[in-house]
Amino acid sequence: MKEIMVRAIYCEMLGYEASFSYIHAIKLAQQGSVLEKRVGYLAVSLFLHESHDLLLLLVNTVLKDLQSTNLIEVCMALTVVSQIFPKDMIPAVLPLVEDKLTHSKEIIRRKAVLALYKFYLIAPNQVQHIHDKFRKALCDKDPGVMTASLHIYLKLIKESPESYKDLTDSFVTILKQVVGGKLPVDFNYHSVPAPWLQMQLLRILALLGKEDQRTSEMMYEVLDESLRRAEINHNITYAILYECLKTIYTIHPKSELLEKAAKCIGKFVLSPKINLKYLGLKALTYVVQQDPNLALQHQMTIIECLDHSDPIIKRETLELLYRITNGQNVSVIVEKMLDFLRLSKDEYTTIDLVGKVAELAEKYPFPYNSWFIQTMNAIFSIGGDVMQPDIPNNFLRLLAEGFDSDEEDRQLRLLAVDSYLSLLECDTSGLPQRFLQVISWVLGEFSFLKEGLEPADVVERLGKLLDDDAITTETRCWVLAAMSKLCGSSDALCKAEKVAHKYTSCLDTALRQQAVELELLGRDVDLRTRVLPQHGFCVWLQVDSSLSFLDGFVSDALARGAAPYKPPHQRQEELSQEKILNFEPYGLSLPVSLSACSLTDRQSPTALSLSSSLSNLLKLEGVKRVWGKQGYLPEKQATEEALAQEPSSIFAPSHQQACSESQQTTFSTIVEQDQEKRQLASSLFVGLGSQNLGKPEASSSQRFRRKVRPEDPSDVNRSLAVSSSFSHSSSALDVLLDNAIPDPTNLSDSTSEAVPAVGNTEVVEASEVSSLSGGSGPLAQPSSQVERGLESDLPSRLPATLVGLLRSDVEELCSGESLSLSACKVFDADALVLAIFLSNISDSSIQEVSCLISSEQLKVPEMCSTFSVLSFYLNVVVSLYRLVMEAPGTQAIVRGSVSCASQATQSFSLTLSLVDFIRPLPLTTEEYGKMWLSFSHDVKQNLMLLKHEEEDQLEAALTALKEKLCLHIVDVIGAEGIMACQLVSGRPCLLHCHTHGGMLAIWLRSPIADLPDCLLYHCQKAIQER
Amino acid sequence: MIKAILIFNNHGKPRLIRFYQYFAEDMQQQIIRETFHLVSKRDDNVCNFLEGGSLIGGSDYKLIYRHYATLYFVFCVDSSESELGILDLIQVSTIYIFMTVFVETLDKCFENVCELDLIFHMDKVHYILQEVVMGGMVLETNMNEIVAQVELQNRMEKSEGGLSAAPARAVSAVKNMNLPEIPRNINIGDINIKVPNLSPF
Fold first, then answer.
1. Distance between CA A48 and CA A461 in Å, rounded?
2. Mean pLDDT score across all residues of chain A
3. How, if at all, do strands A937-944 and A999-1006 pair?
4. CA spacing 20 to 30 A to A743: which of A69, A103, A834, A914?
5. Residue A152: CB partners within 8 Å, gap ≥ 6?
């Protein structure tokens, strides 16, 4: 059997299906002798995956083996647990594995730690109570066990570095001991003590010391020591060195160490060994953003690497060059990249590099417009159809929106048209589809710019494209669309119609539609001029994103007895309740029916969550175009001012320098090679030495190119405030303020309309006067007695819509010299409203305060609220954020920063618990029963009830849960209680509790996967704290 | 984290594969094929690291390989692993592997590695890899412990198929051979007995 199993493994490895043997592998693990068991376990771990059904059969065997007295069996069981184990069955083996942490054999302890690590990876919430045991493992006397626990810590620290700062000292001590050779000699590898352990520790230290001066200071000494020790010339010492370098450059910098590290990088880069060279380049790439001078030191090596025979080295070099690109060397670098691209055949590299070239070309289109167009043409023809679709999109948008000067726009467009016309004259068969699409769009839009060019001529050339069989229908659509734009003259029209007629009977619907449209537009001249105005390519269309024009239609339909709209997930749930297969096509109907849902059941949480998820989509499509004339003007004025301030003399000469140098390089082919390289170097690294000059230029140029357009129409106020940061004259500021201040009334009108739909931020200006009069609002939970007058006053600044709601106490987040920040959580029915109070605690006025928050776990409205001025002492502004938890987690961290003109940025972070997002869900017992059956994800666990003496344990436990977690108690039947709650995004979770003998068995079910898990964790906590 | 360990020969035939992240069977084969395609194109005098390839985890994916005689040892790792560290790990694990395979000689010279040894001792190689790389994590283990593991394995092997178990096995083999014969003998005997009984009849 054993031999046969090994052969089955071999068959699977070669790619032949051997699923018939899976069950035998499990049987072998169950029943065989020790040797057979081992093969059985091995086969299982190779054949099956975590959610395989057969794995459940293994659980019992694992349990038995874990309890076995035979060390080898325990070992095998732990190994298989740490490789694959079903998530649902973790509670069954968890206590046994925990016991093994105190086993006398170190190998068992080590494997137990790894098994727990595996548990942590697949179900972090279930092992949260044993974190202190990890600490014990870290202090284990056996280095092997300690090493194993480091993996857990690396993971934990990666997730939240703040909570483990206290361990820095221990890690430093461990590393010191390892470096000092305190470990047994067995751990030496090529006479380096425990190299992999060292690397692991260095990685942890890098995570801990990142942006934290105090913690970094603790590790300087040991890092220095590591650098010094790692001097033997062997691969593994270089591995440690490399890790050391990364740590040094990640943590808070110390000049002495940086100097040493720079020397080490030199060792890597100059090494004749190709692997080390590769790593040296990688290190340089990593470092060069902080210290561009390092690249200067090694410029000759970098140039050599550019001509290296190994494409991997070449690519890494280009990556490095990409990082040091500035306005002056961009043309040379892009040329190098394109050279490489022409030779490379690897698809992945092409996609990656094409994206980078496009980014560079867009970022620095400076040298000359023709260069930009040529580069983009090269990108399109090389990148072909594999490149990311947003590259052509961005390019077209850039052409359409243009830059700041009309003349420049015209030139650029003209150049594009010229180059494409000449391209079309040559053979077009080799061009990629995407490129053809771009060509046809540009010709359709801009060919009128070229004087003396007959539209008919263009139509004819485009028509030739269509004759080629190789082009796809999508491209044909683009070509037809371009033609319909060109039908200005009767001559062109006649030609276009001839072409279009061919396609009116085409089988492809999109193509056919385009052709028919063209024909119809050709017949009706009035309509054509209205639909396709000739110079109207960048007039912003007003798009009604709420689709309110459909309201009438919807209410008519409703009146006629049509069923009200239900969002797709609700329908799917209903469908799954009825046990009917569900089919796909609901996605399409989504945008149209938005207004219907807001009409019919605006209050229902499902509709709200739908609309908030929709808002992303809407924002992308229509909203940005609303930006009206009066908002645009101050913006432009501001940029002009900034332009004027920029001493134009700085970059003009350096330009010429770059050009002339690159020209020199091209002409100097006759000169000896070394010379050539040096010149290439000088053209590549130009501008790096004087980076103070190069950097701001680059960043400012980027800022000018993209016109800032606000996300949302209702936020004129905010955008005005933003633009005030550009203009420096006080009179302009006054005007802006005048605009801004009377706004709140109608602003709050418009936003309260928009908030449920778009999930926007309300900006409420609370002036001193209003706070005096509005201080006596009826509050549900009067805040606890706060000594400081300021804080007790704060809740009254909340807008009237939020005053009646439950809220938490105000807590202080951070405070600087002049600004103090506090936050308060308001539990609204459909979101958690986070109110951040910014108060001026200095005597002077603070200008241009802006507050920005972000969170990885939550959906945060992506915006920065800006207040123009906080003029006097104790002036307070409130910034409100509606937070919704999309993917459940036990907690979520919100980070934010506040900046203002006169002061450094203050940053703060706030931890929100899942409980903040839980709302009671009122249900009847019957509804509960129905829902219970339809939910697929469940978790069960027994919790110890601490107080045995209580009369009615269930009652007490339920009340505790209700109070702590805001659950709704649906019913209590005998010894069982059922409760229901929902996440603010509208997704329910049901709980079933019953008590027996001092234990509370909790069973949670929900339609989403992680919610029961996370909620269980909080239940556990609530019961324990009771 | 190490995502996969692949060992294949110069022709791309897999000799040992171990995935630490689940992939469907056909996906695994595709990964092997693509990896072989990437690695085999490279000369021996270029660097041992490769980036890119879109199969496992996109851009956060590196290949680190070594080429010994007819075999490629490829480790697929994510960006958190150190390249040189893994490169040496490959060397270490090959030493271990061939320690287990050539038990008696402890032949550390793996220039003349024979693929067949890998095929015939596949399970043992897996056990050793399990000790060095557990669940995708590189474990710093001391050399002696690995050697002890190897020896334990050999002892177990011997205790089943070696000298100590030889008499018992011989006995059981004989028994097994006899079992089917015994009734046949009896039957034949019966017939034999019956025949003489019948003959006078």
1. 59
2. 70
3. antiparallel
4. A834
5. A113, A116, A117, A120, A134, A137
Beta-carbon contacts of B103 under 8 Å, excluding residues fewer than 6 positions away, are: B150, B154
The tokens for A460 are 């004819």
Distance from C-alpha of A1001 to C-alpha of A495, rounded to nearest angstrom? 79
For A45, A309, A350, A918, B45, the CA distances from A343, given in Å and listed in that order, are 43, 12, 10, 57, 20
Residues of A in contact with B18 (CB under 8 A): 46
Q: Which residue of A has its CA nearest to B85?
A: A239
The conformation of residue B51, written as its DSSP 8-state character, comes to E
For residue range A83-122, list pLDDT tens digits in order.
888 888 888 888 888 888 888 888 888 888 888 888 888 8
Rounded-to-integer distance, Cα A276 and Cα A97, Å: 42
Give the count of beta carbons closer than 10 Å to the beta carbon of residue B66.
16
Say yes or no for a CB contact (<8 Å) between B140 and A194: yes
Name the nearest CA neighbour of A565 among A605, A544, A592: A592
Q: Is A197 in Cβ contact with B140 (below 8 Å)? A: yes
Nearest to A803 by CA among A830, A823, A774: A774
Which pair of structure tokens corresponds to residue A347? Answer: 């698809």
| pLDDT one-digit tens code per residue, A426-458 | 766 667 777 778 877 877 777 777 666 677 777
- ipTM (interface pTM): 0.75
Residue A438 tokens read as 């771009």
Opening angle at CA A488, ends A484 and A492, nearest 5: 75
Let me know: does A209 contact A250? Beta carbons within 8 Å.
yes
A959 CB contacts (<8 Å, ≥6 apart)? none
Interface of B with A in 33-92 (CB under 8 A): 42, 45-54, 59, 80, 82-85, 87-89, 92
Chain B CA closest to residue A15: B29
Tokens coding B124 = 């043992």
> Structure tokens of B54?
């879109």
What is residue A638's predicted lDDT score, i.e. its pLDDT? 39
Q: Is residue A938 within a helix (H) or strand (E), and if so which, with residue range? A: strand A937-944
Would you call A743 helix, strand, or coil by DSSP? coil
Distance from first CA to last CA of chain B, Å, rounded? 87
Min Cα–Cα distance to chain A from B121, Å:
9
Angle at A774 between CA A770 and CA A777, to 5 degrees: 160
Q: What is the dihedral of CA A543, A549, A550, A554, to 10 degrees?
A: 150
**CA nearest B39: which of B67, B68, B17?**
B67
Residue A620, both tokens: 């992308």
Alpha carbon A750 to chain centroid, angstroms: 30
Q: How many Å apart are CA A445 and CA A462, to the nearest integer?
A: 13
Q: For residues A858 and B167, which has the higher predicted lDDT (pLDDT)?
A: A858
Angle between helices A2-13 and A22-31 (to 10 degrees): 140
Place of tokens 């980027």: A702
Cα separation values, A581 from A571, A573, A918, A1005, B81, Å: 12, 11, 31, 22, 45
A131-138 helix and A106-122 helix, angle to the nearest 10 degrees:
140
Q: How many CB atoms lie within 10 A of CB A363?
A: 17
Least Cα separation, residue A364 to chain B (angstroms) = 26
A405 burial (CB, 10 Å; 0-12 / 13-18 / 19+) is exposed
Residue A745 region by backbone torsions, left for phi larger than 0, else alpha for psi between -120 and 50, else beta: alpha
Q: Is A1006 exposed, middle or buried (0-12, 13-18, 19+ CB in 10 A)?
A: buried
Q: What does DSSP assign to residue A807?
A: B
Nearest to A293 by CA among A699, A694, A685: A685
Structure tokens at A407: 């003349």
All residues of chain A having their beta carbon less than 8 Å from the beta carbon of residue B141 are 144
pTM of the model: 0.58
Instruction: Mark residue B52 as left, alpha or beta (left: phi above 0; alpha: psi -120 to 50; beta: remaining).
Output: left
